[in-house]
Please model this.
Amino acid sequence: MTIQRLRTPALAALASASLFAAGCGSDEDKVKDAVKDVAAAAKDKDADKFCAALSKKALKQVETGSKKKCKEAFNKQTLDALAKDAPDPEKIKFDKVTVKDDTATVKIKGEQSETKLLKEDGDWKITP
Model:
């Protein structure tokens, strides 16, 4: 049997296992990951990822308020401010995570307000 014949089933098995693992985990874990992902997007000054982490309602508010598309609304100055204030995603400590149906509320240690999330199309998104 050739290396190529061995490699193809091995890669298929690895891809299947990765997809299965990505689907695993509680909603609470997925909510925490979503919060960490948006913090990472802010730290990295990545407007694409930051906008992708927002719910449809949040996107509409950003775009209505700025009269620009989300990526355009998060210009260098805005992204610099977000990056400065965003917590390090690896150091975020959660005081409380509450999940009910397709909504979630997260309280991060040291933060005054709570973060709200909404499950849209299977993904948890930051929402107002």
